Amino acid sequence: MSNQYSPNYTAVQIALSTNCNLLCPGCNRTQWNDSRAINPLVKKNQFLDKQVILDFVQNKASHNLSQIEFDPMIDSEASRFRYSDYDRTKPLPQQIKDYVLHSEFFGHLRDYDTDRFNRAVKKFTQRVNEIT
Question: CB within 10 Å: which end of the chain, N or C, has fewer?
Answer without folding.
Answer: N
